[in-house]
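Researcher: I'd like a candidate sequence for this fold, 587 residues long. If you have to choose between options at a position, lean toward the conservative one.
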C-alpha cells in the first residue's frame, strides 16, 4: 500500500518536472502567460513559532535552516517569512526598528545568509515581508523625528501641531481607544499611527523616505531574496490635508485609508526602481481592495505588482462592525462560492489571483472553515487543502495547516500575546463594556490571530519539539497526536495528503491555468467546479458540511477517473460524505 502510494507521488513529481522543463509561451499580457510565481505554491513560515534552537522559547533562523529538508519535502516552491528585521516586537516584527538588521531573537546576518543559501540549494525561493507603512517608534528615524520640529527626519512621519487644536479623527486598528493620533509632548504635536501607538506611520509623500525604502529593498535583493510580500500596501499614501473622516467610514475605515491620492505613483516608482531590476515576485496585502480596483495594482501593463491578496474570502461570517465576533448564524457556502467565483472572473483575461485561508492574521483554517471536532478534523482539513490547491490562483499555504492544526481557543485573556486581542479586550473594559469584553473573549476562540501562531507541532514531546525552553505562546495540547512525526508515518495523514495535492497541482497545468467554471451554484453544502485546459477537464467537488449530501454538477462520472479523494474510494451512491473532497478527470 505504502509502496504504491510512494510510487504514485514519484510519478506525479516526475511529470511535474517534465512540465516545468517546457519552454514558457511567448510573452503577452494575458492571465495564461506562464510565470514561475503563478505556478508556485507558497508556504508561509511564521518564524517566531516554527523551530527554536537555543531554548529561549522563540523560533529562530537556525531553526528554519534545520527544517529546510522538511519544507522541501512538501513540494512547495516559495517560502514567505513574516518580518525578520530588528524589532521590539510590539506587533511581532511588524514594528521594525532597523530595516537592514536581523531581529536579535531570530539570529544574525550570518544565519540569514546561511538560510538563503540553504533555500537556494534546495531550489526554494525566499520572499521577505516588507513593512512600508509604519516603523517602530524605536527606529532611529522616529527617535530623531520626535526630538524637534526641525530635525531632518521630522518629515519621515506624519505630524499634527497641537496649536492647531485636535487633529481630525482617524481610527487606529490596535489602539486601546481606537485613536490613531498620539500626543507627543517633546514637540507638542500628535503623530499618526493607524496601527499601535508603537507603530508610527511613515510619510511616503517625502521622496527621501521613499528612496530609503527602495534602497533597503535593493539591499535585500542583492543579498539574494526573490521577492517581497508588502504589508498593508494600499495605506501608504495619505491625504495629508486630513479632511474630516466622512461619517460612513466611522465603523469601517479600511476603505477610507486605502488607495490614497499618490498610491499608484509610488507603487510604479517602486517597480521601476526595484522590482523591475530583479526576477522577483511581489504580492501586496490588500485590505479594502476590491475586485475592481485590484487591476490598478496587478494589470501587467501598469508595471506595479504581480499579485494582491484580498480579504473578502476571509472576512465574511463575522458580525458587521464587530471586532471579529463570529455571526451566530454562521457563514453561508453559497456566499463563499460567490466571492471566490467573482475573484476568479476578475482575472479571466488579465492579471493573476491569490488564494489563502490561513495565515498569521487568521485563525486556523480547519477551525474556521472546516470542523475541528475529532471525527471531522482530518477530513475537513484535507477538504480545505483540496480547495486551496485546485483553484486558479497562487496558493499561499500556512505552516501547520498541512498537519491539520486547529485553534487553541484560550479561555483567559492572560494566555494571549497578540496586541490585537489584548487591546480590544482592554478597550471594552475601559469603556465599562464588560459584556462586550466577555463576548470578545468568547468570539476570539474562533477568530483570534494567536490561534494561528501557536508553535509548530513537530512531535508529541512536551513542547511539541518546538523548544526545550518555555514557548513564547502556549503549545496546542493536541500536539500529542497532531504532529509531523506521527503524520510522516501515516500514509493517510493530512501531511501526506498535502504533499499529494501539491504534486498533483504541479503536474497538472489545468489546475494552474485552466478555466474555472462554478457548477451547482445554489447547493448549500457542496462546492463544485471544473477546471479545463487544452482538452483536459477536471471536476472538483467539496462537501463543506458535516452531513452527507448530493451534488448536481450535470457531469457524468461514468468515464471519470478519480485523481484524489480524502476518503479513499468514492461512495457507490455518488453522494459526498461529511467534508468529502474529490478531484476527477472527466472525459
Ligand atoms: C498586516 C500584518 C499584520 C500586522 C499589520 C500591521 O495586516 O499582516 O500582522 O499586525 O499589518 O503591520
Ligand atoms: Ca530561539
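Model: Candidate sequence:
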Amino acid at each position: 500500500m505504502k509502496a504504491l502510494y510512494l510510487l504514485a507521488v514519484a510519478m506525479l513529481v516526475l511529470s511535474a518536472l517534465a512540465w516545468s522543463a517546457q519552454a514558457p509561451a511567448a510573452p503577452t499580457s494575458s492571465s495564461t502567460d506562464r510565470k514561475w510565481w503563478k505556478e508556485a505554491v507558497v508556504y508561509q513560515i511564521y518564524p517566531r513559532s516554527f523551530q527554536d534552537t537555543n531554548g529561549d522559547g522563540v523560533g529562530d533562523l537556525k531553526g528554519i535552516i534545520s527544517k529546510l529538508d522538511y519544507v522541501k519535502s512538501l513540494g512547495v516552491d516559495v517560502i514567505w517569512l513574516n518580518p525578520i528585521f530588528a524589532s521590539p516586537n510590539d506587533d511581532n516584527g511588524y514594528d521594525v526598528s532597523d530595516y537592514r538588521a536581523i531581529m536579535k531573537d531570530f539570529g544574525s546576518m550570518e544565519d540569514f545568509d546561511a538560510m538563503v543559501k540553504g533555500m537556494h540549494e534546495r531550489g526554494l525561493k525566499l520572499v521577505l515581508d516588507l513593512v512600508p507603512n509604519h516603523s517602530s517608534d524605536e527606529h532611529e528615524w522616529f527617535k530623531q523625528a520626535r526630538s524637534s520640529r526641525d530635525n531632518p527626519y521630522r518629515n519621515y512621519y506624519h505630524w499634527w501641531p497641537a496649536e492647531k487644536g485636535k487633529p481630525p479623527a482617524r481610527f487606529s486598528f490596535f489602539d486601546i481607544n481606537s485613536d490613531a493620533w498620539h500626543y507627543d509632548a517633546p514637540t507638542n504635536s500628535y503623530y499618526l499611527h493607524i496601527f499601535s501607538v508603537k507603530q508610527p506611520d511613515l510619510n511616503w509623500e517625502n521622496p527621501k523616505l521613499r528612496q530609503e525604502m527602495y534602497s533597503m529593498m535593493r539591499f535585500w535583493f542583492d543579498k539574494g531574496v526573490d521577492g517581497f510580500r508588502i504589508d498593508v500596501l494600499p495605506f501608504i499614501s495619505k491625504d495629508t490635508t486630513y479632511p474630516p473622516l466622512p461619517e460612513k467610514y466611522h465603523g469601517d475605515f479600511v476603505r477610507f485609508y486605502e488607495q490614497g491620492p499618490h498610491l499608484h505613483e509610488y507603487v510604479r516608482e517602486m517597480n521601476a526602481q526595484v522590482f523591475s531590476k530583479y526576477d522577483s515576485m511581489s504580492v501586496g496585502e490588500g485590505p479594502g481592495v476590491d475586485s475592481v480596483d485590484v487591476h490598478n495594482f496587478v494589470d501587467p501593463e501598469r508595471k506595479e505588482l504581480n499579485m494582491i491578496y484580498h480579504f473578502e474570502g476571509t472576512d465574511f461570517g463575522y458580525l458587521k462592525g464587530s471586532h471579529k465576533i463570529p455571526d451566530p448564524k454562521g457563514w453561508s457556502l453559497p456566499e463563499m462560492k460567490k466571492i471566490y467565483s467573482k475573484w476568479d472572473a476578475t482575472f479571466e483575461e488579465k492579471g493573476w489571483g491569490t488564494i489563502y485561508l490561513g495565515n498569521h492574521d487568521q485563525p486556523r483554517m480547519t477551525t474556521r472553515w472546516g470542523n475541528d471536532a475529532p471525527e471531522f478534523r482530518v477530513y475537513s482539513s484535507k477538504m480545505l487543502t483540496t480547495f486551496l490547491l485546485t483553484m486558479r490562483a497562487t496558493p499561499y499555504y500556512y505552516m501547520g495547516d498541512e498537519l491539520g492544526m486547529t485553534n487553541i481557543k484560550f479561555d483567559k485573556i492572560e494566555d494571549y500575546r497578540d496586541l490585537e486581542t489584548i487591546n480590544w479586550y482592554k478597550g471594552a473594559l475601559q469603556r465599562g463594556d464588560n459584556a462586550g469584553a466577555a463576548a470578545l473573549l468568547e468570539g476570539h476562540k474562533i477568530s483570534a490571530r494567536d490561534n494561528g501562531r501557536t508553535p509548530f507541532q513537530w512531535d508529541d514531546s512536551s513542547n511539541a519539539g518546538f523548544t526545550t525552553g518555555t514557548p513564547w505562546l502556549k503549545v496546542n495540547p493536541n500536539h500529542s497526536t497532531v504532529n509531523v512525526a506521527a503524520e510522516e508515518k501515516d500514509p493517510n495523514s493530512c501531511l501526506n495528503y498535502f504533499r499529494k495535492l501539491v504534486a498533483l497541482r504541479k503536474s497538472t497545468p489545468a489546475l494552474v491555468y485552466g478555466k474555472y467554471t462554478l457548477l451547482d451554484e445554489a447547493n448549500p453544502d457542496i462546492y463544485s467546479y471544473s477546471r479545463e485546459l487544452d482538452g483536459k477537464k477536471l471536476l472538483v467537488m467539496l462537501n463543506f458540511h458535516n452531513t452527507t449530501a448530493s451534488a448536481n454538477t450535470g457531469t457524468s462520472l461514468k468515464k471519470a477517473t478519480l485523481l484524489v479523494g480524502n476518503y479513499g474510494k468514492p461512495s457507490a451512491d455518488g453522494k459526498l460524505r461529511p467534508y468529502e473532497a474529490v478531484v476527477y478527470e472527466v472525459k
